[in-house]
Amino acid sequence: MDPRFNEIFSRPENSIFRVVFFPDRIYHAEYLNATRSPRYRYNVREVRNKSDITVLKGQVFMDGLEFSNFLRIEYRAGRLVEQARERGRFVRGELLAEIGLLPNDPDNSARATVKLHYSRWIDAYQVELWQTLEPPANNYHDYKVLDLMGADKDITHIPAFDAAMEDIKALGKVEAAFRENDRDLPFGYNINNPAWDNNYTRNHQVPNDTQPNSNANTVMDQNYLIDFQRGWYIEADQVEPVRYENAMMDSGNPDRQAGNVIEMRWLLQRELGGNMVFFHEVTIPPGKVEGTHRHIGSEELYYVVEGQGIAYMGEHDDPQLADLPVVERDIFGLGTYACREVNVKPGSIIYTKSGGIHGIRNPGDVPLKFVAFLYQGS
Question: Would you list the domain boundaries of the chain?
């Protein structure tokens, strides 16, 4: 990383706008595996985070000479710990990751199972995948690092990944899912029903079919996507919408009717880092309704950009709305709850935390549009 970022980090402007942020400023340079010997240095080209995951890619140098590309995976296992506890187990010193490398050339894509080991230095599980473990010609590895190298070690080589790691700059994406080890430690018995953290069976939406509620528009991922692309330019009106009829409405909901179709342009989904789930644009045609629903474990923000309508929020969710009318609303999957009616227009914001209720109706004669951000709570 450019050392000038260290100076920017301490400037007042950075304290406001956060141009430089943890962890990308430090790149974990103090505890990359081979740095236990001064003979090894890393050039970290990119760092990406997703939930409990950090992935770094770059080159390794020995005695000042570049000799291998590397990919480092760190995983803090918060979700996997909870999954294992439901089965009456602890996540011990090892776990397994299903890793897919997706370089720009799809012919070089590859998948493999990789073992991660717990590291007290980072309070996480980690592994470094090196393109080669062979030292440069007429040279040898330092004994301080050699004991970390090999199959199922902290520094390992996966032959199936050779083509994908040949050009580390062209390694555009990494998919990852994590599970318990094959055997319990320290007792050694086999784990036959391992717990998984595969992003909670996450999927993403693709406009494959114009028919509302088509299963063809839901793509199952069951893994995390780490994307090394640095920027996106999107024309929202060039993104085809996915259509949903009676979205988030049970069969007995009085708003449910044939032709109650809303459109969602899914602008960013798997590309987002952190715990962000999606950013999309929603269009509610005149006379149509998005079902009222309660969020658990996630937060969502609506920002109205066009049209006017009526939003519904839980009766006690925002104390500022205490003087607004109270109506009974069918809440998706939960029955009837008291809600406040809120008139919305361009510039109106509805922000709902875990446990909060929201929905929206368009009683007007022009489309109502809003953009929505949804992300998982901590």
Answer: 31-197, 230-376
